[in-house]
Amino acid sequence: MYSFQRKTEGVSRKTRDILIIVACVLLIVNVIQFFNYQTTMTRSVALRNTLVSRVRQDIVAARSVAPQMSRSGGSNTYRWLAQTRQYLYGITQLNELTTALFGDRQMLVPQEEVNMGITAVDNCITLMQEGQAIDTPLSTLWKQLDILNEKAELLN
To answer: Looking at the chain, which runs of residues are DSSP E strands?
Structure first.
């Protein structure tokens, strides 16, 4: 008669135990990564919401200053224009911070609109220094602030 050798099928008990341990370790690592990712995303959302609220505050502050310019004298108008420029510059800085943190497509409000507002402020100051009326650039500034306000309300 022929003797047949006994063949073992499958993996040994030791190999099976090692595979189970490796699978458990990988599962634990994935769970830890998931919670770390969730925590990071929560922080990112909270940071973005904070930046959005700061932009909205700057726009509201600039819009509250703008109507006072047409009612005030020359030196007060310079002061109000400087404050408006400060708020617009703050929005620029928040835009740059947001793009640095979240990427180019995550800008809070369009920088072109902010730049147009800054240009309107500069035009007002130039005309005031020349002794001319600032009605046209001032109305342009108000329109830009309204546009920025609309853009800010669309955030989130």
So the answer is: none
